């Protein structure tokens, strides 16, 4: 047994499934998860000292690559002054100001510790604000693991083939109404029927938890118009896309202002930090100002805030997203070219530093399209790449990420490996 195998066996003794989050377990692709011991720039090293070019980036946060020197320095300096106070700090005021400056839809923001906390709190707030219970979500979207959101969800639930979790009371799930993604007619019909009862729509505006599916312009406009007309709250879950697809996130690309936005991943620079924020009148309902309770001992943790601030400052530098988009597109264009040359049915797309690839002729527009892609082929591709030093997400239902640390040579090396693997599996 190699080190990864030994560690996985040992891990299963005291950690359920040997992992602290299900998607890490290589569930649908099979095989042994890699246990990482080091990350630097675009690379990670596993317990057997195998180096990989990393396109997972801790599932999205590491837009600058692993252990960026400025982020590291900020974290070390902050930690030296205290790991946690459970009290306000100047740095969290600076981060809140910066977020509000970068995203015009956010007038007030609250910092939390995970994406799940952000979405869970945003939904409670939307319900408290509207006095309504019903929530609309879309099939294949994953908004963290709060009870009311584990209904027909993507990410690890899809990976393990169980899109609605056990342990969620039917009474809780009953208020979550699930519609197909990008289906304007279904959305209009639901609002026409019970629009006055709907507290909120929550959506991944670019769904990264069923691989990568983009909301159409018509769908975005319909969500905005219907929520405005019926007094419901539009929640953009930009935990994955926030500061990843562009400096003003997906909402900037869509040219709309959601009522509430959830952020995570990049905003915390690789540390446990997330946020939710939006309109003043809605945020004013939060305790201690209003009746909606939300709290957290580690919320606004100074070390995490330092990582977030350092990261947001670096990605705000002129040309950052332009360069990141070019690099990500180079990868996708290269893959398409190789797929053509090897007669592989394949499609791919990218926005900013986020990409999806599918063993299907056309880029998926819905959950059903993703389900119809050739996932057996995905698994073979994944393992072929992994064995040759390229680390992709171990699931056909997760997006990929390019960081500023991925060099031209890294992309060239990745494409060379992809060519070999396409030939192997075609
Ligand atoms: N898709 C998930 C979050 O974005 C992947 C991370 C996890 O569930 O551990």
Automatic annotation (TrEMBL):
Q: Which GO terms describe its biological process?
A: protoporphyrinogen IX biosynthetic process
EC numbers: 5.4.3.8
* Compartments, record wording: Cytoplasm
Q: Which InterPro entries match?
A: 4pyrrol_synth_GluAld_NH2Trfase (IPR004639), Aminotrans_3 (IPR005814), Aminotrans_3_PPA_site (IPR049704), PyrdxlP-dep_Trfase (IPR015424), PyrdxlP-dep_Trfase_major (IPR015421), PyrdxlP-dep_Trfase_small (IPR015422)
Cofactor(s) needed by this chain: pyridoxal 5'-phosphate
Catalytic activity annotation:
(S)-4-amino-5-oxopentanoate = 5-aminolevulinate
Modified positions (N6-(pyridoxal phosphate)lysine) in chain numbering: 265
Query: A Gene Ontology molecular-function term?
Result: transaminase activity
Q: What is this protein called?
A: Glutamate-1-semialdehyde 2,1-aminomutase
Naturally occurring in which organism (per UniProt): Iodobacter ciconiae
């Amino acid at each position: 047994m190699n080190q990864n195998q030994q560690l996985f066996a040992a891990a299963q003794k005291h950690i359920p499934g040997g992992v602290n989050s299900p998607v890490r377990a290589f569930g649908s692709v099979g095989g042994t998860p890699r246990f990482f011991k080091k990350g630097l720039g675009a690379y990670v090293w596993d317990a057997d000292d195998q180096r990989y070019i990393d396109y997972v980036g801790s599932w999205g946060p590491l837009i600058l690559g692993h252990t960026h020197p400025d982020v590291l320095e900020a974290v070390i300096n902050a930690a030296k002054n205290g790991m946690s106070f459970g009290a306000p700090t100047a740095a969290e005021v600076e981060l809140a100001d910066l977020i509000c400056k970068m995203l015009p839809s956010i007038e007030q923001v609250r910092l939390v510790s995970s994406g799940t906390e952000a979405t869970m709190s945003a939904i409670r707030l939307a319900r408290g604000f509207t006095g309504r219970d019903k929530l609309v979500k879309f099939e294949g979207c994953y908004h963290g693991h709060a009870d009311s959101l584990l209904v027909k969800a993507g990410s690890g639930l899809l990976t393990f083939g169980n899109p609605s979790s056990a342990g969620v009371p039917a009474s809780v799930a009953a208020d979550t109404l699930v519609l197909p993604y990008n289906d304007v007619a279904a959305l209009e019909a639901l609002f026409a029927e019970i629009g006055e009862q709907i507290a909120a729509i929550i959506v991944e505006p670019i769904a990264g938890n069923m691989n990568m599916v983009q909301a159409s312009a018509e769908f975005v406009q319909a969500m905005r118009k219907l929520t405005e007309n019926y007094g419901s709250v539009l929640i953009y879950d930009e935990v994955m896309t926030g500061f990843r697809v562009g400096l003003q996130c997906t909402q900037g690309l869509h040219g709309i202002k959601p009522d509430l936005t959830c952020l995570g991943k990049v905003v915390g620079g690789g540390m446990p930090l997330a946020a939710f924020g939006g309109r003043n009148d809605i945020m004013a309902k939060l305790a201690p100002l209003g009746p909606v309770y939300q709290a957290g001992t580690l919320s606004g943790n100074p070390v995490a805030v330092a990582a977030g601030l350092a990261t947001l400052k670096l990605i705000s530098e002129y040309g950052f997203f332009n360069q990141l988009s070019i690099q990500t597109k180079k990868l996708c264009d290269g893959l398409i070219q190789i797929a053509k040359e090897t007669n592989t049915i394949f499609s791919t797309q990218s926005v900013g530093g986020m990409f999806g690839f599918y063993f299907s002729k056309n880029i998926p527009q819905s959950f059903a399209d993703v389900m119809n892609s050739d996932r057996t082929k995905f698994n073979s591709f994944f393992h072929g790449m992994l064995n040759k030093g390229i680390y992709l997400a171990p699931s056909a239902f997760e997006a990929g990420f390019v960081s500023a640390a991925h060099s031209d040579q890294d992309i060239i090396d990745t494409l060379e490996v992809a060519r070999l693997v396409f030939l192997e599996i075609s």
